[in-house]
């Protein structure tokens, strides 16, 4: 269960222009609430219909008293443009605006609401007041269609609420020669995210202070049950459980005025020797409960992971966009079996931070091969480089995405949907063969051309639409995606 993401309680406020029939807006609001109920969306129906500014204040107080943290403002008719837009100013939370479609060609006199026109004035007034609100792709609909808009708004609202109360906690400077993980923190403040940066020594001191914590035994049992016999190192569980408790306590004590946290931690080269293990498995366990722990102090990687957690309500991972698929593997296991070219495919990899629930059944806690080469004596048995969670990533729909602050201090992002193929990787680490249509062009003209780092966040479903809407609401102007062949990139050679 994800414990580090907000729960959305949605309010529904109807508005009515005073020269229109108020009952029309109220009737349509009730119909929207009923359609929401039918599709399992719980909304609080505000009984105050807004015609003027005093109504607006009363309605906002009503939804606040009901515990609502997100709103849909529904134009059941043309609507009063000033009071309806002031709702967004006076309510502390995400607000969506939607308008009623006309219902019947047989009722276009007293039954005509003109909300199609009113939505234009509403948008204009929001812009004049510099108020940010969510407006669906096509914001005019029947009760059934409006209920669907509200359902689609919930993951967007949940993410915006979470980011507004998020603190990213880091340990250690970004690694040398990993400049891709170095990015200006200015972009965090622009979207309302706080950051606390600490030394690796701060974490080590706190870790040592938890040496005899009575909770360690219970965490060790959880780890053993999760992995199963023969798939972990029993003698290391205590050390890893100690780190898990250390991070959880640090989050609780340091979140301050914020409600939600994410970590961006330095995990090599000093960490394993100082702590006695690799932290990857612990990181995977934390993200499985909704607390991202990005590798290599990748602050925007942790931020991206948190966005995916809120959008999907499911766990996520952070991977290197790592290596190409060999031609012989492609020809034997992919070509003719799946609708992808060789350059549509690549391998996503990290040492072992992907949650166990997203790996194939043969996953196990192992050792970090590359760190073993670097840090431990040649031909020795792995010691402190143990602690990674390894295995092929299970076949799944995925969305590969990242929000980044570039070297110019501007927020930019990419989103691409695809899948993890049910094909054995024949490699090490937490790894999978990913397929995204037109990945080769996307790799060259977005990831390379726009200087994105090697880390990408992975959500285990097709959720690009919702992530794209979140990024728009955050004010990100440069949002790239994998374009089809018919739509060339600006830097793509037409010859």
Describe the structure.
The chain has a 6-stranded antiparallel β-barrel, surrounded by 4 helices. The chain has a 5-stranded parallel beta sheet with strand order 2-1-3-4-5, sandwiched between helices. It has a 4-stranded parallel beta sheet with strand order 7-6-8-9. It is an alpha/beta fold and 495 residues long. It has helices spanning 22-38, 53-65, 81-90, 115-128, 143-164, 186-190, 200-209, 216-227, 237-254, 270-275, 280-288, 299-312, 327-333, 369-375, 439-448, 464-473; strands spanning 10-15, 43-45, 70-75, 95-100, 140-141, 166-171, 194-198, 260-265, 293-294, 316-323, 345-350, 364-367, 386-392, 396-405, 411-420, 430-435, 455-459, 478-481. The protein has 2 domains: 10-163, Rossmann fold (3-Layer(aba) Sandwich), CATH 3.40.50.10940; 165-481, no CATH class. Strand 6 (166-171), helix 6 (186-190) and strand 7 (194-198) form a beta-alpha-beta unit. The longest helix has 22 residues, at 143-164. The termini are far apart. Helix content is 37%, strand content 21%.
